[in-house]
Structures are given as structure tokens and as C-alpha cells.
Here is the input.
Amino acid sequence: MPAPSGEYASQTTGELLPVGPDEANCPVMGMVGKKADMVTVIEKGNMYYLCCQTCLPKFKAAPERYIKYPAPPTSRVCQ
Here is the structure.
């Protein structure tokens, strides 16, 4: 299941953070990036996008936590 698209309030500035259709939100760190540049993981038949390799073991250790309570999209991945 891809991350939702739309606009979300940034926790750091209070401004809306746009998330385009070709972008996703990392449920571990809250980073927004281009789907093509992100690390993917499949859990229970759904695809999730992670901002970096560091998030992969964290997600795999507790996938239900990050699926149920994903970090809000607050900043952009440095590309």
C-alpha cells in the first residue's frame, strides 16, 4: 500500500508539506522522497517506502508499529 498523497502540516514550521503522487512518506522517520529513490519493503502484501537503508531493520523489527502509527511527513529526503 503506497503512502498517502496530499498535503500535511509540517511539525517544524507549521506549514503544509506537499506530498506528490510520485512521492511517499517514510513511516519510520517521516521523511518525504521520490518513490523511485526510496528503499521498498513488502509487509503482508503491501509495499512501504523507507527513506534509507537505516530504516529497514527498524521497520522489519516492528512493522505493525510503523504501519499503525507512521511518522508524520515533516521534511524532505536529501537527494
The mean pLDDT is 83. Strands lie at 6-9, 16-19, 23-25, 31-34, 39-43, 46-50, 75-76. Residues 6-74 form one domain. The two ends are 23 Å apart (CA to CA).
